[in-house]
Amino acid sequence: MTAGTTAEAAEATTARAAGTHPGRREESRAPWVRPLVALIVTALFAVPLYLVVVNVFKPGGHITGSPASIPWPPTLDNLKATLDRPDNLYWDGLINSVEITAVSIVVLAILSAMLGHYLARTRSRFARVMLLTLLAGLMVPPQVILVPVVRILRLTHLMTTLTGMVAFNVGYYIPFGVFVFAGFIRSIPIELEEAAALDGAGRWRTFWIVIFPLLRPATASVLIFLGVWIWNDFLDPLIILGPVGGTTVTVGVYRALGEHQSNYGQLFGLMFLAALPVVIFYFLLQKHFVKGLTGGAVKG
Amino acid sequence: MTSMQGSLRGSSQGSRQSTKNRRSNLGYFLGFGAPGLFFYACFVFAPLVLSLGYSFTNADAFAPNTKFTGLHNYVKLLGDPDFRMEVRVTTILTLIIVIVPNVAGLAIAVLLNRQGRLYRALRTVFFVPVVLSSVVVSVVWQAMLTDGGLLDTVLGSMGVKHPPGWLSDPSIALYSVGSIASWQLLGFCTVVYLAGLQGVPDELLEAAAIDGAGKWTRFRRVTWPMLAPALTINTVMLLITGFKTYDYVQVITHGGPGTGTTATVAYGVIQTGFTENKTGMASAMAVVMLIIVAVVSSVALRLLQRREVEL
């Protein structure tokens, strides 16, 4: 046995005795390297976010002059100007965004939970084909279907209406909901439903009283992800609501872009207020975001 | 299957039971399955079929006489230099979008894969762009990268006199757009890789260390194979996102600078369908786009999943 292997074995034993990750051993030589590198990398990554936050609170003229400086004294002029716009772009957009997002995700959660249940519990060829057809819908880009979607909405007089926008959202995002719910429902023992049925509960009651409450983690994922996607959606409301049907906050940022080319202060103010609800939502529900994303990332 | 079980169980009661069962299955479909399928059929399935149908016609919002023209649109697309350019732009963008966030996201996940408040806070930062609208991200980056914008101001104060035209130089703009998209998508990959890293058992790494495996070997032989499912998720998600890149182009470059240097197929479909109102041609482009997305992402999924199984 050479000295080298003994030393290595000894080191390994120490590492195991310490009960730590083997990486720790090498790190202990310079424990400050990783946090320092992590901080620098994160700071560089966050520069664009920093620029928005500081420039929202700066008078317009100071932005192009010293974009990276700290806004001192801070001003609320940009936010005020956004809120008091004569065309009401922000408030109108906000109301539309809240309505569209809230109605869409509630309808989506209900319909995709039921459809997911039907497809997970029915073992016919029809159900299998339907599930595959729906899952294929997960990768259909909106651009591929928008031209005919507009024709269908015109035909049904739903074009440029919030109802039309919600109806499209429900159809377009239901594959995601079904994907989440069907997977989750398969993990719930069917005996539970059979027991409820023996007690005389019908399918409808069994589902809403026994099953749906158990789906809470799946429901949370569906509400959270679809909520963020629909709030942030750009192309679909741009085309479906058009200039007639008003605008959402996200489309509003785009509409304001032309007029503010040089006035970053006001543009950033609008952007800040448009993104704020989603960001607050993210900070509050961070754990759910991560859990929802990483369901399938771990083996086994 | 369900109805068969039902009739077996209820065989003593004869066919009455099975009729009842069939009727209850129909009720189950109408109550639970049909409402959701109806919306999907109206807004995804029917439009797909219609798109395919339009693509064989000369449909045009301003010309009333729609005629069946067979493969004319597709043949025209093949020889259309604009469309070829769009395919080229989309391919380059998709490559950037698949590679950069995957690699950088993994590196950052490995860097931040530690306990403690500091790392938790830093992990939070990387995910913020993922929850922002791509419109917001586009506007921020445009303000930074435009000629004489925030980045040029900073570079100027550092003594750089003639910074490149990040968004105005036709040979650079596409890479700028790719970088912006990568910046936004990176956090997604980081979170997925971090979850994968949490799933690597410490005992396995320790065993490898005892066998004399160095840091790199441990990563290459133990950690990396265990990250296969995370790689699958990220790659397929990035592929699908890359192919449909639209928002950044619409907000930042409008397909320019010059002619079509950043115009993607998705951008072309919308321009042709809604600005030029050529429904038939736009539909043919959409069909080609869908076929590319479907083929590439399902092949990638198959290959990556096979890699997972071989583990």
Break the fold down into its secondary structure elements and pairings.
The complex is a heterodimer of chains A (about 300) and B (about 300).
Chain A lengths: L2 H16 L3 H6 L5 H13 L1 H10 L3 H6 L11 H7 L5 H33 L3 H12 L5 H14 L6 H25 L3 H9 L4 H9 L4 H17 L2 H6 L8 H11 L4 H21 L1 H9 L6
Chain B lengths: L1 H8 L5 H40 L17 H8 L1 H32 L4 H15 L2 H12 L4 H8 L15 H26 L3 H9 L4 H12 L1 H16 L3 H7 L11 H11 L3 H31 L2
Helix pairs in contact in B: 1-2, 2-14, 4-8, 4-11, 4-13, 5-8, 6-8, 6-12, 8-11, 8-12, 9-10, 11-14, 13-14
Elements of chain B, N to C (H/E): HHHHHHHHHHHHHH
Please report which band the strand proportion of chain B falls in: under 5%, 5-15%, 15-25%, 25-35%, 35-45% or over 45%: under 5%
Largest interface: A-B, 102 and 104 residues
The total count of helices of chain A amounts to 17
Count the domains of chain A: 2
What would CATH call the class of the largest domain in chain A? Mainly Alpha
What is the molecular shape of chain B? globular
What is the number of domains of chain B?
2
What structural class do the secondary elements of chain B suggest?
Answer: mainly alpha
Specify the structural class of chain A: mainly alpha
- Stated plainly, the CATH topology of the largest domain in chain A is called MetI-like fold
CATH topology of the largest domain in chain B: MetI-like fold
| End-to-end CA span of chain B | 35 Å
The percentage of residues in β strands of chain A lies in under 5%
CATH superfamily of the largest domain in chain A: MetI-like
Compute the CA-based radius of gyration of chain A: 26 Å
Q: Report the total helices of chain B.
A: 14
